[in-house]
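Inputs:
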Amino acid sequence: MKKSILTLTILGIISALLLSFVYQLTTPLIAERQDQDKKGVVLAVLPESSNYRVVEKNGVTLYEGNKEGEVAMIASGPGFGGTIELIVGANPFLRQIYAVKVLSHSETPGLGSHITGEEFEKNFINKPFGDYQVVKRPAVDPLEVEVITGATVSTEMVVNIVKNAMNQMLVAYGFNPIDVTSAPITTGATDATTGATDTTGSATVTTGATVTTGATDTATSATDTSTGASSAGGGEE
Amino acid sequence: MKFLKIFKNGLWDENPTFRIVIGMCPTLAITNAAINGLVMGLATAFVLLTTEIIISLVKKLIPENVRIPSYVLIIATMVTTVDYFLQAFLPGIASALSLFIPLIVVNCIILGRAEAFASRNSVTDSIADALGMGLGFTWALLLLSSIRELLGSGSIFGYTILGAWYPPMAIMLLPAGAFISLGILIGFMNFISRKGVK
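Outputs:
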């Protein structure tokens, strides 16, 4: 009995010593890396700035680039699997987004995790401020974001966070916020919102009443096809 | 000779993934991209090697009745070390594997080999066993994750192999895809081994 206690105590002390050594060795390296990453990330979303300063406006921490008007902001919100944190680089005076990059997330690997990809980030490169909508077909309007196959919720949550960030930034600089519709979290309702932004909704109403029925129907079926493809591929919803 | 025999044992005859079928949690969870499989395998192999060496060295000093808590303590220390080093030097991969690195502590391959092998054998034999089992686990994860990444994303290690004509099968990246591919691979391994006996 005594030997057991002694053995475990000694082992515990050795482990603690070893771990405190490893901790001391790696913590500054980890902190430095995170600092560098942050600096790189802030400058990556501000196209013409080479440095930035941190300011606090209206309770929001903003990274003002040395190029006039360029502002970056870290925003976060709920995602499908956990909190999504992203950085938005924009010019609130010109009402333009430069870029959006996701910093951390816990979305489904291979589906929702595509919010970090270049393919998805393209949706927000050099875009105007506005009420962005998620669509289940290739985006045609600048304010449309094509849904990531199998990750409708993740896509909508990112769009929501970006919309909130735009508004916070506008308010911080004394502008009026944009009137935005926030996507609800439940799947069924989410689909309804997406549907409303498509031509599907209006097409159903006008069918039979107008001469353009044929053309609208084509659009509708095209939308349906892409929706079908995205739901067939995904398990996230 | 004995060294090679023990080494080969883990690599093939008693491969932890395909033959003994243990350590399934990381096997199924993180094998959605080849790089994750490779790093997970190597991290586990490293923990296995260091813990087997330590345990085979101190096996006579540890009283029988507290050997399991002692092994867990040693394993946890090594895993935390790996975790910190990955965060400091390979932050990208560390964030991809996030939760699963600390979870190596409860990977039954490690405790299993500590109990079944390192606590009864010499240091040299334990090194052979750790290398065999560790690399056996690594190649199994690498194979599984490459297949899943190829079919699920059309790429391996992030390089596109199957072009735009290939519609990625998202199911391969989900847990279901892990079960399906693992099942087929185990069946295939059994088929090969049986052929060898005849």
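Remarks. The mean pLDDT of chain A is 77. Residues 4 and 146 of chain A are 62 Å apart (CA to CA).
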